[in-house]
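pasting for ref
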Amino acid sequence: MVSGVSVDVVVIGAGVIGSAIALELAKAGREVVVVDRAGGAGQGSTSASSAVVRYNFSTFPGVATAWESRFCWSAWADHLGHDVGELARFERSGLVMIDVDTAPRIGWLPLFDEVGVPYEEWDSATLAARVAGIDPGRFWPPKRLDDEAFWADVPDSLGAVYTADAGYVTDPQLAAQNLAVAATKEGADFRFRSTVTAVETIGGRVSAIVLSDNTKISTPVVVNAAGPWSGRLNQLAGVGSDFTIGVRPLRQEVAHVLAPEGYHRAGGVGPVVADMDLGTYFRGEVGGGLLIGGTEPECDPLHWLDDPDDAAVHPTMAVFEAQVTRAARRLPELKVPNRARGVVGVYDAADDWTPIYDRTDLAGFYVAMGTSGNQFKNAPVVGRLMAKLIAEVEAGTDHDTNPVRYHGEHTGLTINLGAFSRKRERNADNSGTVMG
């Protein structure tokens, strides 16, 4: 065993979540080491994120966290607090949430009112007028391409809710790198190409981690932000038996095509469109492109993995064709290429698509997991709420019976972190998809 160092906190994972947590812990004066198996910050599931910034969630804490995060992205340099070189940019393109019976607007618009998120309610005529080339038809439920009903004419049409302050971050990996550089300037130490092989304990408390090169890093606090490897890390630490929410690695694909003519606005980009009616979402990007992903419709098999390292890294024609063809039903001028192009990632997906930000039954061992798919947008605030959680629990707060509350610096909103508990009851109003 190689003698390592002794630090206040070890964060495992240097994606956008882990890097954000490291920044806030370092700002709080803690000595932080971040370890990651990849060669740099944001090279795991963060790099495959569509980086959409939206606010429609099914709970107040979900909406409030996303809305608080919006102000961090809008003033990214200020949030980082350091000159980090080239900055990721928040593109305020707006987002169109197309109506769907499984997540009716009446269920979540009151949360927008409570939080203070501005929005517009559109009928189908307004939707058709405001988004160039869109078909407002009601196609529900999502169908496979080999289902004859997929191609049938539809008599009904749908409206939507538009949030002008939504959009996307132009480069998700760069955003993670920005956070990592800022954390380094606050004193955090990042160690890449480092895989954790053991978590040591003394007297019911975490005491050290051991890396694959036999280096030991002694610490009283560990934060598991390991993305799709978070479940494996929990096993190493012997935690998880009291979790009511499971987390599994899920292989996902995002297609990349050219947007149809007219979709992008003059001098800008077209809006993000969340379309659970067809089982897809898409967003434009600077340069005329369109990213298209899925919303886990029941007709599609999900590609769960026992080991995230087993994920095939190239996009498949079957998934590509399904996603792009569904988007083409909504945007009839969209062309479906005969060659798959896009990115593949492995999500750290929770059973209810809500993250777990919590302590565990091993003292000093914390988790920020189940975040993939819909938490990129919340990363700046996740760093702060995890720093708050750790500070209060380490000071003696029983978070399981008296949940820690985080007060938003920008909005003044109070977020009950019990909503992200490992022991929570499942939210009956959750859509059961990546939309939350």
